[in-house]
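name: query_chain
kind: protein
chains: 1
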Amino acid sequence: MDHMVLEVGTAFVLVAIVAFIAYKLKQSIIPFLIVLGMMLGPHAPTIGIFDLTFIESQEIISFLGRIGVLFLLFYLGLEFSVQKLLKSGAKIVAGGSVYVLANFLLGLAYGYIVGLPLYETLIVAGMMSVSSTAIVAKVLVDLRRTGNPETELILGMVLFDDIFLALFLSIMSGLLLSGSATVGGIALSLSVSIGYMLLFLVVARVGPRVLNKLLDITSNEIFIIVVFAGLFFVAGFSETLHVAESIGALLFGLALSETAHSKRIEQLVVPFRDFFGAIFFFSFGLSIDPFTLVDAVWLALGAAVLTIIANVLAGMYAGRYAGLSHRASLNIGLTMIARGEFTIIIANLGVSAGLMPVLQPASALYVLIMAIAGPLLAKESKRVYNGLNIIFRWKKTEKKKSDVVKKRSGGSVNGDNS
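structure:
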């Protein structure tokens, strides 16, 4: 116990170094932190006073990681808005629906084919259905595609995907954490989870006036204390109803999203989200024994291949339905391939509910593959397009349509940006 603070401090220093390396390489820090965690832990050496096994401090680091999950989901709740989705129009709803269904149904089929039990199959399908909002946003900025015609659709589909995540986590936490085995018990658990979520939706719609008065606090110090007190209380109370604490955090963020203070809360929360979120990925890696990864390779690789296929098909449909070119449509699918924080949260929900242990290493490998492949495929989208164009002859088709439009309008037609 004498070296507890030193161990935690050592973990923070290592996380900072690896995060800085990822930043210099212009890559997402998620896979770097997971790998760092897997390299350390019980199988790591002790160098002098520096104990890289983190055995004494593992509970503290794990608890800090849980706080990271709360901040990640709380921030998502602040960004969550059904109104925004409805205003975005039918194109985003259609594209988002196809995107979620393609990934989820392929995940269900994959789980069934490899012989996973029902709940494990549902968790795998959920893992495969949620893209990483953070990585997608970073890719758009890094590749300077924020002004591209497909970007608005991508952001709308990501929002739709986030809404699916909220519903999925709420339902699955009710199923898995209640321990109900009968049809009536399961129905009751689902009703409680959905009713709990609807309660916060109602609060978000009718409660801003009261919440605005309660949060009308000039001092940032008192303001953040009040917000965080509410966050942790709601998260803890949610578990008493067999609703995951992370969902409680998301719903609390949702309740505050329509208040006049939402932007102020976001600005104050971002540093905590980033810091504790990084600790979460590191602690997740610590919980993975690298020697167990061999058993999970087949499951992770199969899920990765199916995810890429589903994303490309869904992106092509969404883009073409919205009237975009084949290349812009391909950009949609390739940009949204990355998986990250929310995939791990779904896997952890399954593991905490006592499902098959293979879900944890499988989710780690899956996220590592997709967090690397996603940005890489998006960056090389032009080469991917040229390769697929040899088979599907998209350029020839679009040239014919372009010529027809020119003849009818007497003008010229501009192409897409890369």
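note: The two ends are 55 Å apart (CA to CA).
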